[in-house]
Amino acid sequence: MTDDNSWTDINDHVTEEWKEETTPFERIYEVLEQTHDGQSAAEIAERALVSEPTSRRHLDALVATGFAATAQDGRTTRYRRDDDRVLMTRIHELREQATRDEILGGIRRMKAEIRDYEAQYDALSPEELARQLPNEANEEWEDVTAWKTTRQNLAVAQAALAYDEASEQLTA
């Protein structure tokens, strides 16, 4: 049995190690990558273990590069990752790591996986399945998550393929 002090010690050690092994900019970048709904510079500073002025300076630089987006909430600027930039990064990484044939093979496999989920659950989407499931249906809830992930990965693979085709047309 583990007591709460052991977990606190472990968390403190991991936090201190993260702070020692990364720069303030790297920590802010990591925190921002996980920020979907937007947070203030002060909230991000607290999570990234930096001062608020340091947080604001690095966040403004990330906004200028297009990695971050802002929204006003009254007088507070809220920062979040730019989802378009994240998508383009994923597309670029896939194009760098896989050949056209590998991407096409992955698309075929993911489409087959999605058809299997549709047939197994007699549902057209993971959202439809989720509306039908009781809370205690653990295995089915895991399938909802896997189905959503497969659908997202399929969309990225298709976008990477379309991007390659468009690039070829523009350079021809």
Task: Outline the secondary-structure elements.
Elements (H helix, E strand, L loop, with lengths): L3 H18 L2 H10 L5 E2 H8 L3 H13 L3 E6 L2 E6 L1 H15 L2 H22 L4 H7 L5 H34 L1
Antiparallel strand pairs: 1-3, 2-3
Helix pairs in contact: 2-3, 2-4, 3-4, 5-8, 6-8, 7-8
Explain this structure to me?
There is one protein chain. By secondary structure, this protein is mainly alpha-helical. It has helices at 4-21, 24-33, 41-48, 52-64, 83-97, 100-121, 126-132, 138-171, and strands spanning 39-40, 68-73, 76-81. A three-stranded antiparallel β-sheet has the order 1-3-2. The radius of gyration is 21 Å and the shape is globular. It starts with a helix and ends with a helix. 15% of the residues are buried.
Keywords summarizing the entry:
172 residues; mainly alpha; three-stranded antiparallel beta sheet; 3 strands; 74% helix; 8% strand; globular
